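[Q] Does anyone have a clean structure-token version of this?
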Amino acid sequence: MPTVAPLDLEGHVVATHFLGEVPLFASAAGTIHRLDGGEKVTEAHEGLLTCIRDPYSATLLTGGEDGKVLRIAHEGSVTQLAEAPRKWINVVAGGPQGAVAYAHGRTSFVRLSDGTTREFSEERTVEGVAFAPKGLRIAVARYNGVTLHWVGTNGAPVDLDWKGAHTGVTFSPDGRFLVTTMQENALHGWKLDGKPGDARHMRMTGYPAKVKSLSWSVKGKWLASSGAPAAIVWPFSAKDGPMGKAPLELGTRANIMVTQVAFHPAEEVLAIGFVDGMILGVRIADGKEALLRRPGKGAITGLSWSATGKLLAFSSEAGDCGVIDISA
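[A] Here you go.
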């Protein structure tokens, strides 16, 4: 079994991310803990709600109960990008050219690298935002669907409608597909590479719980999801993605729910975290499983691979976190 270096923190830890080979852990209390020649602490928010890794830079993006949007570098330095007094910021996204999106209420905002900000209003509350992999474009998840906005131009928005509450959104790495998590126990998807206005629907249903974690494989052939007592992994390599195809079910454990999934940065290997704190590694090719961590004190809330894929960091709602050395 791989070696585990534990890190015990106070209370709920919202997420963990690697910046290069340095793991960082974001607590709900608002502190960022990094393991870089010992544990170092950055005071970030008065109540942290969300923490993501910016895919375009070696930084974290965070939002909090204090209405602030922050960029945090690997050495712990903090840059305030925006502040909305008396608002809770629980939606942030990183985009190309230093762009950052965030939202509160019915409005999403995109802050460009020069500090200018564009606003996009919706008829219902914004629940999720994602940048397209090509071009400066955002997808905004809301009640009854998704709206696509071009950030740099005044082009008309595109509405992708599907009844129900859409709580999160992600583009496939090649930009051909858009997938949302829903308030009901389902995913919904659209195929985007047809003619404008010709987006085809994909329904991915049958989950016993809400899907709260998604992860694309390195080349976008697979989309892994939580929300079941196995990782549900949908195939996206065909022209029409998962339409008409059954998903893989990996790491099945009777009645013990998957809470987090994270694909390896170079190989088709999936890390799966469970509600009881256990972590499995599973190879897509043959379903072979490796126990990476035995059950702990609380549900896994975050999984993150280092840039080399040799280390896997994990966070939990009980604060029992750590780093697993896969190569050991």
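[Q] Thanks! Anything notable?
[A] Residues 278 and 295 are 4 Å apart (CA to CA).
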